[in-house]
Amino acid sequence: MSRLKYALIGHGRRGSVHLSTAAALKDTFEIVAVCDAHQESAEVGAAKVGTKAYTDVQKMVDEVSPDVCDVVVPAQLHHIVSCYLSRCGISHNVETPLAPTLGLMDMMIDDAAEYDVKLQTSENFPFVPVEQFVCKLIQEGVIGNVHKCYRLFSTTGYHGLAAIRCRMNANPTSVSSIGHSMPVVPYVDGAKRDFNREGLEFYAVDFDNGGLGIAMVGNKNSCLGRNKLVGFETCGERGTIITNGNQSASGGETVNVCTDEDISQKSGRAQTYAFQREYSKDKILQRIYVELPQSLGGTIEWLNPYRQAGIHERGISLATMLDGIAHAVREDTQPLWTGEMGRADQEMVIAAHRSVHKNRQPIGLPLKPDPEEEKVFDRKFEEQFGIHPREDIEKALQVNFKAR
Length: 404
Hints:
Elements (H helix, E strand, L loop, with lengths): L3 E6 L3 H12 L4 E7 L3 H11 L2 E3 L2 H8 L3 E4 L6 H10 L3 E4 L7 H13 L4 E3 L7 H11 L6 E7 L4 H12 L3 E17 L5 E14 L4 E7 L12 E6 L2 E5 L10 E4 L2 H6 L5 E4 L1 E4 L5 E7 L7 E5 L12 H16 L7 H19 L5 E2 L6 H15 L7 H5 L7
Parallel strand pairs: 1-2, 1-4, 2-3, 4-5, 5-6, 7-10
Antiparallel strand pairs: 7-11, 8-9, 8-18, 9-10, 11-12, 12-13, 13-14, 15-16, 16-17
């Protein structure tokens, strides 16, 4: 089948990674455009892959008619670009979070459904190779049924909550949260984000299978000498899987699990089995595997589907997402991470914030949009851009957005 025409919208820090990953998927995409509000950024991206540069989304759509767009603009602009593309009949992948409010996410999901296009949230974390392998171990029953997950991390909560949902294989029913904020000396972190406060939140998420997910998140990013607080523990009836909680880190993962003999003769003391990785000569990940006793499944492995494409381990999750939207368009199937799934991840974060404001009371799921939250977003948007964010999507699209 011929390649799909791919256009990137937003060639900033993340957008440049999306572009290079799409370029590596040579059998999947023909890159037909790079669009950014800033001409220089658009031209730099276009030059990398030998395609056309645009600063106007509408003009780009009219001239190149992409099959798939990849939306990597600031989150408060996601709904504007997404709704416009849906109304043009163009399927698209949207960076995380799907949108800042429930109402905006519902607007995006409804437009995609009305115009019969595929909307995918680019939630990479569950598709990191080690995460895919962990889910395979769980699905094959290596540690028994999973009832608890703990995750300590240093940045946004929805990534970890998405991974917890995958590991629990269940739907969240309520969220309770503790929040704390303190002033710090102003600084700019490695991702060029400005901070003058440090936040810390502790989420407890109940699931419909009786399970519990615990997540601790903050904006520390190892700055100011703080402990990284990174780790992920998944507890099953027979054992535990220990991994690093950071999607860019790898190594040191183990499955600690009991055989029947460990249960009956060693007081339930689990044996530790380390994850192993196999690489090609040019350092491309070939597989992740663990060697277990035969009674626990023997050797279990995850094979890298991109081992021939030359994509390094850190790029596999994004490649999986971009391939996911392409497959959905070609085969008329659901994307890997639908708009509804992206909403569910962000919904847990919003529920946690509501819990903090309600003195740590549990907030039941699913949530409905809060009119006051929507009004606050609309007011701030108008103050920043001089136009209402929902009343006229095409007008809002013409605003010269500030690049990341």
